[in-house]
Amino acid sequence: MPEERIYVIPLRDVRKAPRGRRTPRAVKIVREFLMRHMKARKVKIDEGLNKRLWERGIERTLRRVRVRAVKQDDGSVEAFLAE
């Protein structure tokens, strides 16, 4: 039975990264957050969530993002944009 949770992930640490690496850093922060909170080894980010993170470009990313995380039976996590 898959386990599902909704998280609001703060991305304030992205501001410490150089301007040209902020959105890749945001993707990494989302992945690490879900690995830590869902206790998973593998996190797959959905295309919709990835587009939302990248919609403002590489330099200006979001302050926070709302994510729906679904943990599968094999221990992997799929992350979707929560509406």
The level 1 CATH classification is Alpha Beta
Distance between the termini: 22 Å
How do the strands of the widest beta sheet line up side by side?
1-3-4-2
Q: Into which percentage range does the β-strand content fall?
A: 25-35%
Q: Tell me roughly what share of residues is in helical segments.
A: 25-40%
| CATH topology description | Ribosomal Protein L31e, Chain: W
Specify Rg, calculated over alpha carbons.
12 Å
Shape: elongated
Secondary-structure element series:
EHEHEE
The largest sheet is: 4 strands, mixed
Number of strands: 4
- Classified in CATH, the superfamily is Ribosomal protein L31
Unreliable stretches, pLDDT < 50, 5 or more residues?
A: none
Present the secondary structure layout.
Elements: E1 3-10, H1 22-38, E2 43-45, H2 47-54, E3 64-71, E4 77-81
Parallel strand pairs: 2-4
Antiparallel strand pairs: 1-3, 3-4
Give a verbal description of the structure.
- The chain has helices spanning 22-38, 47-54; strands spanning 3-10, 43-45, 64-71, 77-81.
- Strand 3 (64-71) and strand 4 form a beta hairpin.
- The protein has a four-stranded mixed sheet.
- The protein is an alpha+beta fold and 83 residues long.
- It has one domain (3-81): Roll (Ribosomal Protein L31e, Chain: W), CATH 3.10.440.10.
Characteristics:
2 helices; four-stranded mixed sheet; Ribosomal Protein L31e, Chain: W; 4 strands
Brief rundown of the structure:
This protein has 83 residues and is of the alpha+beta class. The chain is 30% helix and 29% strand. It is built from two helices and four strands; from the N terminus they run βαβαββ.
